């Protein structure tokens, strides 16, 4: 413990309270500081301009929420017998706090897109940052005890034996989600993500099976689930953010293709990215990357001789998204014809058309037959029996187990040139016959 | 005018309302989009972690404040005779809005530090971005009229003839300051910067000499001045932010020195920075830079053979600030002896000691003999006579014309090693005798 | 129009903007000022202590929301032909604003409870306040035109011919509801009632059939419906507020019974209430009442010789609610036996037991066969076709047409005395066998 | 201690946490519940319409701030020797919390005005409510120990020996002021009163002489002082609120005069006020009064035969304030002539003219020669020496020891009738020659 707690000012939680030297030392590692250079929401700031916050502030926020949960548990539900009574054992506090702080440490620049192109795995990298003796994070954790790095890693990968600790960090209502909903709402300036954190923390309670909620807090939990649902629909799945991700994907794919073709122009060599193109990167290489490093190479490529690469780099840096329309299983067969028309208009269909689907399961009951069974949210009745949330809340019941989202077809904005304007051609006109009210439709059905 | 206004969601103003095609086109230029990659507060996020916002969101905010001022002026004080009556001529709206949006367009990465090292001048660059035919910004402005780029530039450099437009963008209470105080307060999570923007906008009014304020709004203006004063003392002058700037300065100085010595290791060549080291850069070169580009080269230099360069790069990226103590005119003579001790402890004194002063003049009356005379804030009485703010407000009177701030001496944290710890030596002990309660003192006075 | 708009500071809308002399004059009538003395949420401040706001601030808030709707309609959808095109005719502004401001003018002290006991009807009284020549409100409205009072009244009773005006004031998403949700949330300090008013106002649009919403605002409307649902469940139906209403009802019933028995002790005569006990009241009598007047008589009755009356008065003034348990159709048959036990414990069952049911229909589609058909919420597609909200939103679909709420049985707190405490008797023990987890149950089922 | 803490939802502090049965019992006394019926800001809601909050919510807020101070003191500065070390002795917690909760219990309806007319003294009454065995409050306090009521009373009257407890409740930066500034700002919807409560609580620390502040919190304390100054200037001294108080004063004076003349019309007898007119009231009588009771009698008097009484009652209930102008020592001699003109215009000068002065001393150093010496705010340096706040802060220095406010002359609005309107007469014209820009001036000086 620190002789006197240290605080970090934070717009969401007002202050982040640090009470252990270990936590302070972890925050000061290069691996944690690197998260200051990685946006929490990737390219969402291209749509919600305030979304400029990083994984660093989020990580401290998750730590703070976990700390408050521990405080509440210790004040109100302390174990009398080392946890055998199903109550909270405060010896678990440090491992829980470290896991909360470090849960995102393996995320890379433009995380999901990067993984998709280069085959990296942020969960695997998180484990390595925690357990590889070369990192500062590992060094700090080792200082607690030799097996402490592995313990923290096991909380993050859900194999830690105490379900209270695991669920605090990772479940359908965990410190991670609670922080990002509030923080993303604050920074985007929307209020969909607001819910009553104080009340939820008050009604959380440990039990032998993990974490449950008191009946008086049922509506606050319901409100959290609904908020999360709305944030996905409104912010995280916004079609223009996804469009910028599509462009980023195409840009990296094109660079990789050129690189793998073996004649990448040395003047534009992305020195820090090269190990990834070469499929031969170390943990150190990975930790050298951040959003700014990738953007730097995109600047290089503005002048690259390949017109596709340079154009896609400019579209990304200058924010010129593709347009899109939704499609369904029954209209998906129309996409090849539409892509043909995009090609006929002069675009390389491999890089100037794309599909993207985004679906979320806002909440689900536990299903042992599922590939990824969820820890359902339990309301603990006065007589200690548990009732699953969706059986009590008609609102939550309405969205339980139902994936929500859409599939979109992306194409250049030029395809929407209006009649009477210079870019409008017969090909363009033909293309537009496949669109109605933002959806892909079969033109023949309208005739 | 756009057929239907377009809005951008913003956490500070809720929505930014865009009503002109010209404004929309300006926002979409690469020069404006580049501001998304430059932090508004430089390295302040190293202290106030939420301060991750950029000059892009600020620029849109300044635009929005100016737009609201124009709306109020046009609704309540429209001229009847082209402005000869001292009232608002709405023909000035577009030039005012463009100047508001573009006023920061010339800022570079880590703006003030960069200028200091490389001799760039963001005001001069702003002018060039507006008036050089090579930029997209110029192209959009030219579309209004051939002389429009120069008109917008003249608002920004204060030479535009209409003082209402000039003061709206640049005065002691302008759209720029009002946005940044609110935005910095929002993102840092402090409330020092809060004031009643709505009320101030309501009580602003045009007159022949520029912009004045109605008597009923005197206290709201007073509150704004006090807020600004407090933000400077609390946020902008924070000693740890300044420490990170000191490190950045030393880092760039060291790189420049190595570069100019002519044997910069080619493997670590900062391609996009090279024109600046070579003192031969174009506007295009300047526009290729942003915070992430500089950080990328700092990553390169982590492995550079020069230990000073690599250490300073690591200190900057990993946030390891120098410590500091305040000094005064009378204690400044002690600094050489202290620097000697830093050198004796093994640090290169050129790169591991520094002084830094930060002073602000929170508000001043107009003084024609000043090098930079201020436009004073005028309260317009019922009978149209003007009274200067500080004559009415004792709070403002207390800080009018008084610069506030401090001077600090920076040195490595190792110099503060505590007795009994490994790093504590006789040299260190000697050094610490120069410090008391965070101030530099003469050890002889204490004996 | 006023030469310069006048503003009222408001914590919810920041400022209320008044631009017409008629509106200012209406605000200054005694009938409007009286609303300052009537709580918006009746006795809810007994549970949510911040809920101390009145119908006056709410009324100004509804006016302000309506004003903003008119501004948006006039800016974006002005009619070109007097409304025949289904767009907004700004000649309707004043009647809409007056109706918004005055819609609650007929509410009395402790409104719903009072009506229930004394057979008053606030809608009928609203009509009279608007149209009776004796009121100041009528005088101000008459000043516009002789038929203006009746026009405003017809907006409030839904018979006004323009459905845009009617729906603005009264529909499932109207200015009234939008203000009270935000205001009640602000004052109670809960965030269930928050939704994005600015966005909803932006996406509202007039059409021939009334008011519809643009597709881009669908989620904001959804969020509003969910917020409203949650406010009902959490705030408006709180069992302790309802308990205080039960006590108020019983208190007024007892006073009425004593009064009607003809021997009401003259020393405790409720002078301003007497006309209502005598079933012979004038509009002037009604306008003399407010929450404080009723409370004054409750103070008188603290010393009344009838122990039931004095006890109920003390319970109300000193906030000593009854306790309650939920019951259902199948357990309702147990209530007589429970009331017998309350009587056996020494309480007059007529005044110390009660049932109360609270149900709300959060949203419904239009149903011409309903007794009170609802104006459903329509989303207007790009091709001007309408789609009803619940067909687009799974969240809204989940609660459409479903009433939600509960029925409760109320009884004195003494019936819950714990075993081993002085008040615990065999009768009390017997009573408690009917309760489990806050519900009424059949004790025989547990044996 | 309660087995589990109980919370009250509060918009300012989010939750009020109650952890002692004694506190819960005190909240449930009739004397505390009565505060729900007394507005915190008297008639200020006539100007800032949201200011509808009561002394009840404020009292719970002061309790909550004090509770948080105790928590911080106990966590960070617990005494090791019963307080002899100058640190916090948590045995003082309960007496401090009770004093915080009860500090305003003696306030009456329209507190200051009522005291002025009827010679009551809320501090004396507070003491009686605490120590008189007839009250419920006394009964609860006696339950702690026989001398506990007197101990709590001694904290409130500053005679309690522990200065930490006294200063927590009553000093220039105490729990009372911190709650009311935040609460009044929240309810009026202004942000002048906002300051960083969390930070101030963090930097408060006990010492032998009372409570001091750490140097790192100097600016937060400065901000609090400035906020308080601004709230007085903007909210508490608003000329229209004071006008409504003037009318209330005149109304009660007239009623008293009629009553004392001995022929008060029995039909309009203010039963609960009569003991005060008769100068023969008991504590029980006092506790029967609240804002609503007084308003009820004002309703009665609307029909009273005396035209002055009925007119003043209507002005108060219907919010028809007098107008005012500031005057100074040098212009005070003009007021009799102005009052003559008001009389000449047909108004009884005793009831239709008035002067009112409002001055505040925002902050002062300790001055042993003062009639009411202030406990100055001390900043405790690293070496435990104390520095008084105004020596460190130029902002605070500017307002230290200086009273601020104004004196106003009040008169009927009719005196401002404009030329050309029906009410404009030679007398009115003559009167208006004494006014310029809201100030009383000597007409001869303008000739």
TrEMBL record, chains A, B, C, D:
Domain of life: Bacteria
Gene3D superfamilies to which the protein is assigned, alphabetical: Hypothetical protein af1432
Annotated ranges, domain HD: 55-181
GO molecular function terms attached to this record: dGTPase activity
GO biological process: dGTP catabolic process
Keywords: Hydrolase
TM region(s), chain numbering: none
SMART domains xref list: HDc
Classification via InterPro entries: dGTPase-like, HD/PDEase_dom, HD_assoc_2, HD_domain
PANTHER family tied to this protein: DEOXYNUCLEOSIDE TRIPHOSPHATE TRIPHOSPHOHYDROLASE, DEOXYNUCLEOSIDE TRIPHOSPHATE TRIPHOSPHOHYDROLASE SAMHD1
Protein name in UniProt: HD superfamily phosphohydrolase
Organism: Lacticaseibacillus sharpeae JCM 1186 = DSM 20505
């Amino acid at each position: 413990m620190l002789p006197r707690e240290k605080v970090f000012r934070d717009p969401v939680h007002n202050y982040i309270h640090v009470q252990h030297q270990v936590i302070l030392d972890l925050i000061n590692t290069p691996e944690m500081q690197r998260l200051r250079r990685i946006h929490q929401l990737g390219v969402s700031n291209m749509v919600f301009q305030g979304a400029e916050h990083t994984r660093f502030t989020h990580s401290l926020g998750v730590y703070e929420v976990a700390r408050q949960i521990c405080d509440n548990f210790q004040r109100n539900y302390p174990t009398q017998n080392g946890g055998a009574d199903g109550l909270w054992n405060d010896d678990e506090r440090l491992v829980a706090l470290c896991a909360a702080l470090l849960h995102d440490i393996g995320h890379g620049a433009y995380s999901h897109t990067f993984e998709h192109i280069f085959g990296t795995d942020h969960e695997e990298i998180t484990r390595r940052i925690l357990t590889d003796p070369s990192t500062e994070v590992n060094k700090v954790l080792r200082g607690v005890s030799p097996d402490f790095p592995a313990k923290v890693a096991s909380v993050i990968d859900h194999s830690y034996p105490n379900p209270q600790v695991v669920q605090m960090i990772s479940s359908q209502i965990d410190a991670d989600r609670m922080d990002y909903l509030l923080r993303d709402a604050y920074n985007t300036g929307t209020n969909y993500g607001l819910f009553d954190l104080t009340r939820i923390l008050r009604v959380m309670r440990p039990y032998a099976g993990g974490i449950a909620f008191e009946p008086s807090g049922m509506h606050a939990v319901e409100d959290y689930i609904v908020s999360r649902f709305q944030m996905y629909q409104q912010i995280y799945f916004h079609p223009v953010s996804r469009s910028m991700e599509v462009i980023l994907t195409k840009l990296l794919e094109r660079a990789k293709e050129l690189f793998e073709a073996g004649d990448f122009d040395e003047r534009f060599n992305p020195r820090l990215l090269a190990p990834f193109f070469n499929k031969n990167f170390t943990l150190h290489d990975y930790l050298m990357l951040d959003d700014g490093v990738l953007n730097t190479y995109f600047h290089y490529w503005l002048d690259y001789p390949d017109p596709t690469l340079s154009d896609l780099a400019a579209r990304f840096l200058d924010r010129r998204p593709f347009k899109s329309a939704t499609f369904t299983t029954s209209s998906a067969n129309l996409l090849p014809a539409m892509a043909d028309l995009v090609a006929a208009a002069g675009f390389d269909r491999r890089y100037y058309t794309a599909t993207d689907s985004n679906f979320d399961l806002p909440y689900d009951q536990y299903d042992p037959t599922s590939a990824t069974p969820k820890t359902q949210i339990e309301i603990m009745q006065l007589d200690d029996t548990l009732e699953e949330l969706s059986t009590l809340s008609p609102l939550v019941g309405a969205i339980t187990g139902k994936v929500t989202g859409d599939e979109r077809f992306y194409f250049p904005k030029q395809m929407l040139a209006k009649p009477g304007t210079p870019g409008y051609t017969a090909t363009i006109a033909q293309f537009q016959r496949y669109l109605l009210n933002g959806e892909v439709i079969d033109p023949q059905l309208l005739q």
